[in-house]
Amino acid sequence: MTSLHWTDGPVARSAGSGAVLDRMTAAAAVGLLIAWAGMGLAESRRLDSSSASSPASAAASRGYAAADPPEMLIGAYGGKHYNYGSDVRFRRSGTGPFRDFTVKDVEWEGQSFKHPLYYGARVARWGHGGEGPGRFGGMVDFIHSKAIARMAQELRMEGRLDGKPVPEKARIGDLFNKLEFSHGHNMLLFTGLMRLASLAPRVSPYVGLGAGLSFPHTEIHLNKNDPTRTYEYQFTGPAVQGLAGIEFRLARVSVFLEYKFTFANYSAPLTGREGTYFPHDIYLQARRWLSGQSPPGGYADTRLSSHQLIGGVGVRIGGPAVAN
User: Fold this and answer.
1) Which of 5, 119, 196, 250 has its CA 20 to 30 A from that of 243?
2) pTM of the model
């Protein structure tokens, strides 16, 4: 029997101080990334000036030979991301009381600079040093961000929860103890890359487009209707990204500034299980799927799309070295 308690009357959303703080941290992040890019450009110009005084060094830094091995970059990055709001549909049939309801326009906080921090890691491979226009490459890119529902939101709802109609409006906190993907809105993306015409000998813009999989840490608990929470790593569906960036190439190190947009389609099984660690959680999910076992709480479906502004550092292996 449903024992969900709903508050009477409208409840004001508490976005005030949190929204101001989020805007301030976003502005600080953008400022730091611009400063980082400026330092990379200044260092690039210093190296250009140094190379200009030595024709041999300039030739070595700007050219490549057919015998040069392909270039690989191993890098890490941080930054700031913004999540768009989205509807979340909860559906269950056959494993308990009928459940099919939708929470409309859930706002997802990113909290990029709160633990666990926003971060990413990548391995990219370019042919023949990767400099100059028309160079193609590929990248494996891992992104760890977050999507956390604001519990004070009062949102529209529609459908039936455990056989009973849901109210037209309610606070998220009245229904959920948890509604978030906070130990990772994690994505593993295989991305094609293309360099554009260089802005300077060591300043290389690039673009990319890729697709992959989402492996979030799902944290969802209907506080009156489900006895236990779902708290585990899961595979939830496909993800895609598009990006554009600038790389500042130093001797064997690259500094990069990048904008990316990601989109992930989620169908998260509500298992009511306390997870352990990533490989074990994914193994158990695969075993349940192969056996045809339905999750006790059904599924939570949503789409998460995000703007991301990042800055990072990578070490280049192979290809020609840039002269100091």
Assistant:
1) 250
2) 0.78
Whether the Cβ atoms of residue 180 and residue 219 lie closer than 8 Å to each other: yes
Q: Name residues whose C-beta falls within 8 Å of residue 172's C-beta, 6 or more positions apart in sequence.
A: 103, 106, 149, 150, 151, 152, 153, 155, 179
Pick the CATH number of 16-61+68-317 from 3.40.50.1000, 2.40.160.20, 3.40.50.970, 3.60.15.10: 2.40.160.20
Q: Are 272 and 229 in contact (CB under 8 A)?
A: yes
> Is residue 306 within 8 Å of 242, Cβ to Cβ?
no
> 1-8 — which CB contacts under 8 Å span 24+ positions?
1/162, 2/97, 2/161, 2/162, 2/163, 2/164, 2/224, 2/225, 3/224, 3/225, 4/161, 4/174, 4/175, 4/224, 4/225, 5/174, 5/224, 6/167, 6/170, 6/174, 7/170, 7/171, 7/174
Compute how many other C-beta atoms are within 10 angstroms of the C-beta atom of residue 53.
Answer: 8
Per-residue pLDDT of the chain (324 residues; tens, 9 = 90+): 333 434 333 333 344 444 455 555 555 555 555 555 555 555 545 555 555 454 444 444 444 555 567 889 999 999 999 999 999 999 998 777 889 999 999 999 999 999 889 999 999 998 765 444 448 999 999 999 999 999 999 999 999 988 889 999 999 999 999 999 988 899 999 999 999 988 888 899 999 999 999 999 999 998 877 888 999 999 999 999 999 999 999 988 999 999 999 999 999 999 999 999 999 999 999 999 999 999 999 999 999 999 999 999 999 988 766 655
CA-to-CA distance for 295 and 17, rounded, in angstroms? Answer: 38
Burial bucket for residue 168 (CB in 10 Å: 0-12, 13-18, 19+)? exposed
Place of tokens 């009928």: 98
Report the amino acid identity of residue 291: S
